[in-house]
């Protein structure tokens, strides 16, 4: 497997506090890597280090197979971009001026595709509005557009949905999925919003106290978590009969709700329930298991 | 590096604070130049004109504009974009230093207008006036280099501006102290005899008395290492050069004398300036240039090791 980022035994200390403690992780090419950990676990420190904003105290990391001390690392960095905590934009400039500025910094001679990139993030109609007057979601999207200026193939996003309203969260999520699918951009995304990450990530890395405690693919996680479908029906007994008949693994959780585990055809369940005269009121993915997995992994008490 | 310069100059062009201060300084200098010109109109009263008296404000204006310019990259987070996308820290620092030097140079160039009066009235030859401005230009880059250094390491606009102003003010105070110390006489003089009789130091001295004096070493006269350190500081401090330029004066009734005060790198009293080389002898910009280079090299070294949030 080809890796965009590999770290080996990275350590970083702030005074007496160990921010990273022999951290090793691998981000495969083409992945959306969900970097999960509570506040203060070391997510942002790791991101700052791989972005070259800080140096590790010990250990090493490589980008596209090049060690960070390699003399060519600056050229390699041109293939990546990041938003660390807050989007890096000139607040006193418009969206377009910010884009021009990033193009100048990167030495891109033509400004032709700026409109296209602003359109991609939904900021094509901001006109002369200065970035300081943007909503947080717009700033976040402008930050991503600036990231895309150099056509990177590795995007690092640190807590991109922090402070966003539900609409903003959905917009950012869809944009990340679009960039990953259409432009094959590998994304490393740190968050402690597990719900949100589970809708995006193809790989996960769980960090606690500066260490990676588990790296796992989304498929492996689904299996490990026993991910469930929560179904709400009009007749609990009919549902139990149908699920028994289909030999599904399930758990009745209330007078009209049950969690169904494993891969099972929703349409098949629905049609069988209909035959039993039972109405399906709602079906939804139930992600509580990812949270349980995380809590079990890093210890529940510490993480409230 | 060229890309960074291109981007940073664009940012400077959009910098309202810079444009505001530049307009203010230019307007003030034009006003001063015209007022000075009028002051040389024929009059019997003798008075002195200090054409570049206000030039020390350059230090403070450059401190404010530079700290805001450099720290914007930190407050808006754009410094991260530059580093993440592979710009070397050395180039980022040097680009900032070059652009802030341009801030300092453009502000100082505005002081050309202050000379309208003295040059058009032929009180100072243009060549000598231009040398003064040249020295001021080089000296002003020290303030931009120092402010870039402080702002890069401080990263917060308001804090950086306050520290830069405080450092500039401290340099002026240091120059004043050093000049004062170096200006102390080597020997003190006291009255030895009055009309041939030993003077007791207390009695009234009658008018038209014949006085003789005796000299004795001044205990406060700096010697040895202290003097070497003071002379070095006097030469190196950019404020010495600026103070020297601020203190050039011309007399309205005299066509050819222009004088520089004790704030010269020579640490001596008033001396006439008669050729461009005399200017360099009293306010040598080479020291400023060395100071700028030193502070920039130190800044690059520290910036390379700085953790950025």
Could you characterize what this model shows?
The complex is a heterodimer of chains A (about 300) and B (about 300). Chain A is an alpha/beta fold and about 300 residues long. Chain A has two domains: about 5-225, P-loop containing nucleotide triphosphate hydrolases (Rossmann fold); about 230-285, Alpha-Beta Plaits (2-Layer Sandwich), CATH 3.30.70. Chain A has helices spanning about 45-50, 75, 95-105, 115-120, 135-145, 165-180, 195-200, 220-225, 235-245, 265-275, 290-300, and strands spanning about 5-15, 15-30, 30-35, 60-65, 65, 80-85, 155-160, 185-190, 205-210, 210-215, 230-235, 250, 255-260, 280-285. In chain A, a hairpin with a 2-residue loop joins strand 4 (about 60-65) and strand 5. In chain A, helix 5 (about 135-145) runs parallel beside helix 6 and helix 8 packs across helix 11 (about 290-300). The mean pLDDT of chain A is about 85. Chain B is of the alpha+beta class and about 300 residues long. Chain B has two domains: about 15-185 and about 225-305, no CATH class; about 185-215, no CATH class. Chain B is about 60% helix and about 10% strand. Chain B has helices at about 1-15, 15-40, 55-75, 80-85, 90-110, 115-120, 125-155, 155-180, 225-235, 240-245, 275-280, 285-305, and strands spanning about 50, 185-195, 195-200, 210-215, 250, 260, 270. Chain B has a four-stranded antiparallel sheet with strand order 1-5-6-7. Chain B has a three-stranded antiparallel sheet with strand order 3-2-4, with no helix packed on it. In chain B, strand 5 and strand 6 form a beta hairpin. In chain B, helix 8 (about 155-180) packs across helix 10. The longest helix of chain B has 29 residues, at about 125-155. The model of chain B has no long low-confidence stretch (mean pLDDT about 85). The interface between A and B is medium-sized, with 36 and 27 residues.
């Amino acid at each position: 497997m080809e890796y965009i980022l590999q770290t080996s035994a990275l350590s970083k200390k702030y005074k007496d506090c160990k921010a990273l403690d022999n951290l090793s992780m691998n981000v495969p090419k083409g992945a959306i890597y969900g970097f999960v950990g509570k506040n203060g676990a070391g997510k942002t420190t790791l991101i700052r280090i791989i972005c070259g904003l800080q140096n590790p105290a010990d250990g090493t990391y490589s980008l596209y197979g090049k060690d960070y001390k390699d003399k060519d690392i600056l050229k390699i960095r041109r293939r990546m971009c990041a938003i660390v905590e807050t989007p890096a934009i000139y607040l006193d400039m418009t969206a377009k001026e910010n884009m021009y500025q990033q193009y100048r910094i990167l030495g891109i001679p033509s400004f032709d595709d700026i409109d296209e990139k602003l359109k991609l993030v939904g900021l094509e109609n901001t006109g002369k509005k200065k970035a300081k007057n943007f909503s947080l979601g717009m700033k976040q999207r402008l930050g991503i557009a600036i990231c895309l200026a150099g056509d990177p193939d590795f995007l690092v996003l640190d807590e991109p949905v922090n402070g966003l309203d539900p609409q903003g969260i959905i917009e950012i999520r869809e944009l990340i999925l679009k960039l990953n699918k259409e432009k094959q951009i590998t994304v490393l995304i740190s968050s402690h919003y597990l719900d949100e990450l589970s809708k995006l990530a193809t790989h996960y890395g769980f960090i606690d106290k500066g260490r990676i405690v588990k790296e796992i693919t989304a498929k492996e996680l689904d299996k490990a978590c026993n991910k469930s479908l929560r179904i709400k029906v009009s007749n609990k007994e009919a549902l139990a009969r149908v699920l028994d008949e289909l030999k599904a693994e399930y758990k009745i959780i209330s007078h009209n709700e049950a969690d169904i585990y494993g891969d099972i055809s929703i349409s098949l369940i629905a049609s069988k329930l209909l035959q039993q005269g039972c109405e399906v009121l709602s079906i939804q993915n139930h992600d509580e298991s990812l949270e349980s997995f995380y809590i079990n992994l890093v210890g529940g008490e510490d993480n409230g | 590096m060229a890309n960074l310069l291109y981007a940073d100059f664009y940012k400077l062009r959009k910098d309202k604070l810079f444009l505001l201060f530049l307009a203010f300084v230019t307007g003030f200098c034009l006003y001063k130049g015209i007022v000075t010109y009028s002051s040389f109109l024929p009059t019997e009263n003798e008075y002195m004109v200090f054409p570049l008296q206000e030039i020390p404000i350059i230090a403070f204006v450059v401190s404010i504009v530079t700290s805001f310019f450099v720290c914007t990259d930190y407050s808006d987070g754009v410094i991260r974009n530059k580093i993440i996308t592979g710009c070397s820290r050395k180039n980022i620092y040097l680009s900032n230093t070059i652009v802030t030097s341009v801030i300092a140079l453009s502000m100082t160039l505005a002081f050309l207008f202050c000379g309208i009066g003295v040059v058009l009235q032929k009180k100072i030859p243009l060549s000598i006036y231009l040398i003064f401005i040249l020295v001021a230009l080089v000296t002003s880059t020290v303030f931009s280099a120092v402010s870039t250094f402080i702002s890069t390491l401080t990263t917060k606009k308001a804090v950086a501006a306050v520290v830069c102003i405080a450092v500039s003010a401290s340099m002026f105070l240091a120059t004043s102290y050093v000049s004062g110390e170096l200006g102390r006489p080597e020997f003190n003089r006291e009255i030895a005899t009055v009309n041939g009789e030993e003077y007791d130091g207390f009695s009234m001295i009658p008018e038209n008395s014949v006085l003789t004096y005796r000299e004795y070493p001044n205990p406060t006269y700096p010697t040895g290492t202290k003097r070497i350190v003071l002379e070095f500081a006097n030469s190196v401090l950019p404020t010495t050069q600026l103070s020297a330029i601020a203190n050039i004066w011309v007399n309205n009734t005299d066509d050819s004398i222009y004088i520089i005060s004790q704030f010269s790198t020579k640490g001596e009293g008033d001396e006439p300036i008669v050729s461009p080389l005399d200017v360099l002898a009293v306010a040598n910009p080479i020291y400023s240039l060395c100071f700028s280079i030193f502070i920039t090299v130190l800044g690059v070294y520290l910036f390379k090791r700085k953790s950025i949030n």
